[in-house]
Amino acid sequence: NEFPSSFESIVRKILRLLYHVVAHIYHCHFREVALLGLHAHLNCVFAHLTLLNQRFNLIDPKETEILGDLEAA
């Protein structure tokens, strides 16, 4: 059960795109998320993506600086 040689590049792309989706939700839709009472879930998803990236360094730091203040909080 070996991973394909392109596994890491695929995971990097998926994580980068998910990070962009989360950033978009925070930037454009956070009010609606909060009104629905789902902000804790969004924060949890963001925390998991951040920890995964910190552990395996999969996203270029330039890609994550947009949510750097939130990450530091």
UniProtKB/TrEMBL annotation:
The keyword Zinc applies. Pfam families: Mob1_phocein (PF03637). Signal peptide: none annotated. Zn(2+) binds at H24, H29. SUPFAM superfamilies: Mob1/phocein. Keywords: Metal-binding, Zinc. This is Mob1/phocein family protein.
